[in-house]
Design brief:
Blueprint (H helix, E strand, L loop, with lengths): L4 E4 L3 E5 L2 E12 L2 E15 L2 E12 L14
Antiparallel strand pairs: 1-3, 2-3, 3-4, 4-5
């Protein structure tokens, strides 16, 4: 059985002071089949221990996804 494979590409990274954000398109495959695509948005805060994720937001699109520049995953 194949593990689920989420993949991101062309992330946009913004950092100002102690806060950061990553915005990236993604696609998700499970058991060798395409499931969905969308956008991942992660927020970070730089603390004494290093960068910590403070929130994760994602948008799911089931139909009409553009073709991934990463091609079809192997596995």
């Amino acid at each position: 059985m194949n593990s689920p494979i989420p993949r991101i590409w062309e992330p946009t990274v913004e950092v100002t002071g102690r806060i950061g954000m990553v915005w990236a398109p993604y696609d998700f495959h499970s058991e060798g089949f395409f499931s969905h695509c969308g956008i991942d948005v992660l927020a970070f805060l730089n603390m004494a221990e290093g960068w910590k994720v403070t929130s994760v937001t994602y948008y799911v699109v089931r139909d009409g996804c553009p073709e991934s520049p990463l091609g079809t995953p192997e596995g």
